[in-house]
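Supplementary Note 2. Why include the ligand at all?

Several targets in our set were suspected to adopt different conformations when bound, so apo predictions alone were not considered sufficient. For every target with a known small-molecule partner we therefore ran a joint prediction. The input for zinc ion is given below.
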Amino acid sequence: MAQGMPGGTGAGALLSILRDGRARTRAELVQLTGLSRSAVSQRIDALLHQRLILPAEETTPSGGRPATAFSFNREARVVLAADLGVTHARIAVSDLGGAVLAERAADLPIDSGPEPTLSWVLDTFRELLAECGHIASDVCGVGVGLPGPVDHESGTAVNPPIMPGWDGFPVPDWLGERLGVPVLVDNDVNIMTLGEHWAVYPEVEHLIFVKAGTGIGCGIIAGRRLHRGARGAAGDIGHIRIPTIDQVQCRCGYVGCLEAVAGGAALVARLRDVGLDVANGRDVVRLTKEGNPLAIRLVRQGGREVGSALASIVNFFNPTLIVIGGDLVEAGDHLLAGVREMIYGRSLPLATQSLGIRASELGDRAGVTGAAVMVIERILAPETVDRSVTT
Ligand SMILES: [Zn+2]
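The joint prediction is reproduced in token form.
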């Protein structure tokens, strides 16, 4: 019996081994899986037939007869990814290894409603496919991130506060009917979390990703897997009540929420109050880079508010790493300094002993990377591969 093969003993489990990018011979695969040589050959044939692996001649170390090695074919299919924010969108085509083959960013207001937004996404997908030399039949799935609460199972937004017309809209059906492939949907923070963890910190067991943009939210990796909670609402820290601050009205209807004080929209409002010309989080970042003292002070204080909310979460969840992303993190050290000050000052020593707090490495690409990864991990899951090679 095969030992130590995650995901069973089928072709999908064999593919999981090869996904690390190293080519391996039949003999190596027999040794790694504990399967018989004929069983390994049968699974290799199935994967070759699907073009999920490719053969390559390799000379044996002893200089004897060359043995054929097999490697994962990351170019076998492509994935379409869309990261839809409140005011702008990023669309990409990626290979099965998560590498972006073509991408586009554009201003796209989500409040124009689902059909106009998704029509633009669909047109852009088709243009990008042509740009990187692919056709519709190369596409194996679509991943979409939305800037509001999403029920991941049904792929629909649930009472999104700033997305008129999107509540319950069947995004997977609408895009699926037009593209003929599975469509997975999640909220923007979860896909950013997936992307950053997968591309930059795959070995980290417990990670929190905070998006500090127009709003504030966080994604949770627990035991190397995204934790969505019972209904997909896990990590919604934007509406934690910050006790020490003024009674600021939040868009959720309550007062004193973290987002209402430290979110990009709140900082924009404060800067406009003193007559500065700012429209969004990127303008706030620009002001901090120009050395505007009020902008710097607001961003740093915002960092402290985020940090004080995170301090309790650090005690509760004990992550190894906190990654801060979103527009506001581009303001450099001002935001992170505030976050660090409160977390290290208020969390328990055992929880902060080896805790890292860093800015996102992927930046504004975290979302499309994660949207693609969400699809890749579904399509290449051993059980999915096993089903596709037997039908
Ligand atoms: Zn709120």
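The first helix runs from residue 11 to 18. The longest strand covers residues 88-95. Comparable summaries for the other entries are listed in the accompanying table.
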